[in-house]
Amino acid sequence: MINEKNIIEQLEKNLMDWNTNPKTQNVGYVEKNTDGVIVASGLSLVTMGERVEFENGLSGVVLNLDEDYVSIILLGDGSQIKQGDKVTRTGEMLSINVSEDLLGRVVDPRGEPLDGKAKIKKGKLMPLEKIAAGVVEREPVDTPLKTGIKAIDAMFPIGRGQRELIIGDRGLGKTAIVVDTIINQGNFRKSGSKLRPVVCIYVAIGQKRSTIAQVVGRLNESDAIDYSIIVAASSSDPAASQYLAPYAGAAIAEYFLEKGQDVLVIYDDLSKHAWAYRQISLVLKRPAGREAYPGDIFYLHSRLLERAVRLNSKNGGGSITALPIIETQANDISAYIPTNVISITDGQIFLQSDLFNSGFRPAINVGTSVSRVGGAAQTGAMKSVSGKMKLELAQYAELAAFSQFGSDLDAATSQALERGKRTYEMLKQPQYSPLTEAYEILSIWAVTNGFLDDIKIDDIGRFEQELHKFVKRSHEKLITTLSNGEKVNESTTKELEKALTAFKKVFK
Prior knowledge:
The chain has about 500 residues and is α/β, with parallel strands linked by helices. It contains 15 helices and 17 strands.
């Protein structure tokens, strides 16, 4: 006999145990394909930033979560994806395969080689998005990262773990500065310094392929490619690749950071990164704000640049130094994206077109540029000679403006003006010719102590080059002393005076 009570209890139990989340919630279907952005339905369990796979083997990243649909940006050519195609969850956040095998290679934001060489060996999967290290894990920036550029190392020093913005109009030499910095890390490795060598990562975002090839060629010529990694998303690549490129660079940097190494990451440039993100956001129909950028454009760059860090010894003691590049229009640093990135970084090196056109290279505006780390990221030797130069340049700027309104100048003013002109001339530096700290100090000390006062301005470049050769040949011990980074003392000053006096006797 059937017991109605038992039947009701069994039905209640079955209803309680019934799974209301069918497997189809982990599988969706393409509803629309628009400019590399896929709208799919059915993926109700998917999470933001999760990697999904299409039935043709392509991958994508979830960037929008709506009530009934999700929006996915494609990683690759999506021309073959059509309505009704299956989309499957992976349960994984987007990651990149990183290993030592990446050194010397050119890869895309997915870690796939672009240089025609063998596939990258399997290493560790590093997430492209990661929360930056906390305050208690960090340490103040006080260790220098030498660029080999006199004006920067002397007046706007960059420290390991810093975020220093390089900003200026197109064609003023922003990329040249960062390439010089990469090349100089090779000089640093050869110098026998006690500081750790630096792994360099150059991220090309929206650059022409010819420009990227030029950078790779220059690094090859300088033997700098061996300790460098190039992450390239060219102007012809989809906006999704350009959007992901800097995060791929940061993920690679964090792999070496975990091993206690020092890393330099260059983002060239974040203006084009913002343009790519704006393009994606407009296709996603996100609300547009100022200059049509989405409301989270500040967060886009802040979460990236905050990953630059110097860790304390408890957490490995490694560092990531970030050199983001921003392209301005008509020297306007008050535009939306430049002001955003300036507020996130620890200073900026501003390149000005007027200086560039007048022949001052690198065209660094001394008055506008700043490094908030300051002298903490300088050696004692550089600090002891650069302070006097900064003071003299500041005085020169004031006197030059004042002298325009008067014809009769006293001897002291005239001397200060002539010294300032020669200092600026000494700060000029040929492209792809970074200097070691010893030669930077030698040049700065010479001009601040009056050894160039009687040298014609047109001869200063030749004077400096021949001085370096002379000291290397005849006063090698002095170069070794200056390379130690210790403060220039009385003994070293006498050696400098002796070397400069001897050189001026033979200079013609």
